[in-house]
Amino acid sequence: MNKLVAWFVLIALVVIVAVGGYWWMDLRWRPKTITRHQAEIAALLEQSGWVSPALTGPKLYMVGFRACPNCARAKLELLPKLHKAGVDTRVIMFAWPDRNGQAQSTPAERSTVAELWINRDWSLMERWDAAPVEAWTAQGIPPADGDMARTAVIEAGRGMVDKLTPLLKANGIGFGTPVLIWWSRDGVMHGCACGNPASYKAVLKDLGAK
Questions:
Q1: For the segment 5-54, what is each residue's pLDDT rounded down to a tens digit?
Q2: Strands (E), the chain
Q3: Which of 17, 75, 114, 192 sits between 20 and 30 A of 122, alpha carbons compared?
Q4: DSSP string for 61-115
Q5: pTM to 2 decimals?
Q6: Cα-atom radius of gyration of the chain, to the nearest Å?
Q7: For residue 191, how far is the Cα from the chain centroid?
Q8: Among 138, 133, 113, 135, which residue's Cα sits nearest to residue 50?
Q9: Where are the domains of the chain?
């Protein structure tokens, strides 16, 4: 009897480990269908200061910040493939607010984010991405600090993140950058916190890209 119980316990442990491994390696990275608060999410994204290459295919929004390594990877590995498929990648950059009196963004970052929101310059974002984070000085870009209008733009970006986070959570999506939200070619709204390249395959397939 004791041997039978031991076998059942062993089998149960194997099943738990297998299911847990499947979730860890695959399921948790899969995009989710957004069925709740669709209109609110769409409005937040559309009204934000996104920049894009102005392509004519399906829309995909990416929300991230400059020092985010997963965002940099997605821009380098995922976005070019989507562009080849005509997907209009609309990138929304934001600057984290201070935490416990410590700055979580730099003056150059804040200035660049404000400029992107105001003038929607895709080439500026490409130049920013091409430069090392610590080397970017935002030369020639009006400072955001000390400018009430540009500081308000920075706060608008932070407010967008604050509003978007619970709406995504209601759809089972945690806010982890980069956040990707898109409409498949048949019009279904999807999203994911796509910090792992394992999620790219599903995104590409959903948008008809390779």
A1: 545 545 544 434 433 343 344 555 679 999 999 999 999 999 999 999 99
A2: 32-33, 59-64, 88-93, 179-183, 189-193
A3: 192
A4: EEEE-TT-HHHHHIIIIIHHHHHHTT-EEEEEE--PPPBTTB-SS-HHHHHHHHH
A5: 0.87
A6: 20
A7: 9
A8: 113
A9: 1-30, 31-206
